[in-house]
C-alpha cells in the first residue's frame, strides 16, 4: 500500500523538450524543473523526469511490456482524466475499454502516447482491492 511520505520516481526518454512539456501540461502535470537536457513533472503526485535522448526513442511501441501510468482509486478521477485527454485532443494509443469484464479484476482503461512514443495507461478498478 502506498505511503504518503514517499514519491515514486520514473525517468523516461524524450526526443524534444518543448513538445514534451506541452503534452504533460495538457495532461494536467505541473512542470517542476527544466534544464537543457531534461524536464521534471509532478505526475499525479509522483515524479516523472523526461531526459532528452532522441537516439533512444522506441519507434514502434507496444503496450506490453513497457508502459506506465495511474491507477485511480476513485471513478470520478478516472473520468476526469479521460475527459481532459479528449478535450485536449491528446493522442490515444488505445481507445477507452473494459478489461477482464465480469471478473474481480475488471477495470476501465485507456492508453495515451506521448510525443516520444512513451505509453501511458490510466485505469480504474471497480473492486479497489484489485489496485495492487
TrEMBL record:
Please report the name of this protein according to its UniProt entry.
VOC domain-containing protein
Name the domain of life: Bacteria
Transmembrane ranges, per UniProt, are none
Q: Where is the VOC domain?
A: 6-125
Name the Gene3D superfamilies for this protein.
2,3-Dihydroxybiphenyl 1,2-Dioxygenase, domain 1 (3.10.180.10)
Note the Pfam families from the entry. Answer: Glyoxalase
Amino acid at each position: 500500500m502506498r505511503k504518503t511520505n514517499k514519491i515514486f520516481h520514473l525517468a523516461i526518454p524524450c526526443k524534444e523538450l518543448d513538445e514534451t512539456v506541452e503534452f504533460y501540461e495538457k495532461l494536467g502535470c505541473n512542470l517542476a524543473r527544466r534544464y537543457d537536457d531534461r524536464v521534471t513533472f509532478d505526475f499525479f503526485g509522483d515524479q516523472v523526469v523526461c531526459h532528452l535522448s532522441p537516439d533512444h526513442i522506441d519507434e514502434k511501441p507496444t503496450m506490453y511490456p513497457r508502459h506506465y501510468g495511474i491507477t485511480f482509486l476513485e471513478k470520478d478521477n478516472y473520468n476526469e482524466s479521460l475527459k481532459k485527454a479528449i478535450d485536449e485532443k491528446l493522442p490515444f494509443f488505445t481507445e477507452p475499454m473494459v478489461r477482464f469484464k465480469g471478473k474481480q479484476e475488471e477495470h476501465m482503461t485507456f492508453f495515451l502516447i506521448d510525443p516520444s512514443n512513451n505509453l501511458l495507461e490510466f485505469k480504474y478498478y471497480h473492486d479497489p482491492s484489485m489496485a495492487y
